[in-house]
Amino acid sequence: MTTDGALARLIRSAADRTTAAVAEVCDLCAAPVADEHAHLYDIGQDEVRCVCGPCSVLFAGAGAGAGHYRLVPRRRVRLPHVDTTVLGVPVGLVFFVPRMDGTVTAQGPSPAGAMRWEVDAAAWQELAGTCPQLATVEPEVEALLVNTVHGLDHHWIVPIDDCYRMVAVVRSEWRGLSGGGRVWPAVERFFEELTERP
């Protein structure tokens, strides 16, 4: 994951809330975009790009973007508890992204950005057998987002841009070696503000 484009703007805005807001523009045509706007996932660069309404329409159909860009969906689905221990990732704040090639990656936030691990694809399929909604996660652009830190039990299917927002929250609030007193309340607020969307 690089820190260019939309992700960099998310990190900068979360890191310095006192700075005046900079008007965002479409990363394709440079037209201004509204506060609530669509995103494209650039598969080759592994980053999210902001797009205006007209540009987003160009990528709405199946096969649009020639396999390089995928329109990030908006749906969010709250799941019941999902036992992710079968995936072998020993952290409580993580998101799992199935890829177009059948692999699955786990990414966890850190003060330096997202750490990435490869997850056994057969273990992901086994987990999807116990939670059929996981089979509906769109490769590259949706993720299973999990927070079990401090006894919490949050499991969501979310768009990939939500995951990058969560990483930006951790980067902006982390202090010292252990994170300090601000990071976990900020993460809890992030999850409290998630709402289901079709």
From TrEMBL:
Domain of life of the native organism: Bacteria
InterPro entries (UniProt xref): DUF5947
Cited Pfam families: DUF5947 (PF19372)
Protein name in UniProt: Uncharacterized protein
